[in-house]
Amino acid sequence: MTADPFNLPSTALPGRGLDPAEVLDRLREAKAGDRDWRGGKVFSLVYSAGEDHHRLLEDALALYASENGLNVLAFPSIGYLQHDLVRMTASLLGADDAASGGAVDGFVTSGGTESLLQAVLTARDDARDRRGIDRPEVVLATSAHAAFDKAAHYFDVDLVRVPVGPDFRADVDAMAAAVTDRTALLVGSAPSYPQGVVDPIADLAALALDRGLLLHVDACMGGFLLPFLERLGRFDTPFDFRVPGVTSMSADLHKYGYAAKGASVILYRTAELKRRQVFLTTNWLGGLYASTGVAGTRPAGPIAAAWASLMHLGADGLLELTGTAHDAARRLRAGIESHPELALRGDPPATVFAFGAADPTAPGAPDIFAVGDLLAARGWYLDRQSPPDSLHVTVHAGHAATVDGLVADLDEVLAQVLEDGQRAQDRSTDYGAPGAG
Question: What's the pTM value of the predicted model, to 2 decimals?
Fold first, then answer.
């Protein structure tokens, strides 16, 4: 049995079921080729608060392994857990501030992609119903998440991507120039995934208010990170519902909330916008059907695990994890910046960033993908992205024990690439891949 997603095996349904022990053995065999994120060398996709915390998540997942999140009348505890998650997230993101208007509310989703899909769908329906725009537009920077392209594809919305400024942040003037009579939604990132910089949210919000537009702040990365960096005195730029003009936000619980995959929250400033996300129909023989998200049947395990994570860690635990992750990111950043041949992309304030050749066109500039290949040979996993060619890292608290080893290996492999002039043959930059869930 192989787990290679590019050469999937064809495993026949057995005539007679296998013994549970054999089934688990086969799963362990399939998993053997996966990256060992527990070893602290994977700087993408997984966020770790330690083995004890993972065991708690596994227990919570198991407790709700079979319940269906579609119907909270049958399973009222799921509704209770979701309500708590939404309220805790809203409070963290400025809902208790007077500027929020006091009506911030929302829903739990399956992840950041679904949260962004819902933000676009809500904006589309708002533009159609309130402004009579049949095919609305969304204006956003080229750094905004790829899920917005998926949303535009799914929901017949036109996406207008605007180049970022030299600091890789959204260019507000360029976005203003791109606004038309069909624009329904502006997007800002806090921070953006590719370079980890925070867009000028206050300026985007002022633009949205001036033009009568909605503004979604994609804080999937930063929703459970930036508020705690602010409490630590390491970030001081308002980006949430404290800023008038921000009409919706997304924040992933399974990132820096250290929850299990997949759980996210989408929030709306007003009850009217929130209602637009709810789907209702009686147009079948089954009676009233209602759903708050893309899926009907919804796994309850991730909801329970997210609740367990926040309740176990609490504000103090999240503050400590944020400080630990940020300290590790600072050490990695210092190691990168100690090499004049390398540079970060922009000035990321948090724990996610990208780096590459300071001047890729300069004679003798290092090929950052060759650097990545040599790091991979030593067991490190960093995403590759372009343009410009960069290695991308997401630093979490679990990297505190390993980041210095990454810096040491980076020193050695960079010296090797500079000496040999190596270039990577594979130039691919796949983040999601065929066969991936």
Answer: 0.93
